[in-house]
Specification:
The chain is 36% helix and 13% strand. It is α+β, with helices and mostly antiparallel strands and 91 residues long. The chain has a domain of 63 residues. A hairpin with a 4-residue loop joins β1 and β2. It is elongated and about 55 Å long.
């Protein structure tokens, strides 16, 4: 992730950028791979891979922290239903 800071007369701006294409391509392959086996009895399943820049966007714009278990269901719903995040899903 690349961070850039700049300012004008009275404001400081911080810009975060990251190349999420490799993660999206990997997730597309995982979505297409129907031969993957997983334990249906497991309480944990890999459902998404969220780049840090997107995690920061959730925190800044929606007040959601991907590391907070109380936010997990809301984040999962966004990832599952919002077409902008389609390729961050892994299944």
């Amino acid at each position: 992730m690349r961070t850039t800071a700049y300012e004008d007369e009275s404001n400081l701006y911080i810009k975060y950028e990251d190349d999420v294409e490799p993660i999206m391509e990997q997730n597309k392959r995982l979505q297409a791979d129907r031969t993957r086996l997983f334990d249906r009895k497991s309480t944990m399943r890999r459902v998404a891979e969220i780049p840090m820049v997107i995690a920061m966007k959730f925190r800044e714009e929606q007040g959601l922290d991907i590391l907070n278990p109380e936010h997990a269901n809301r984040i999962a719903k966004i990832i599952k239903t919002d077409p902008d995040y389609k390729y961050f899903r892994t299944r």
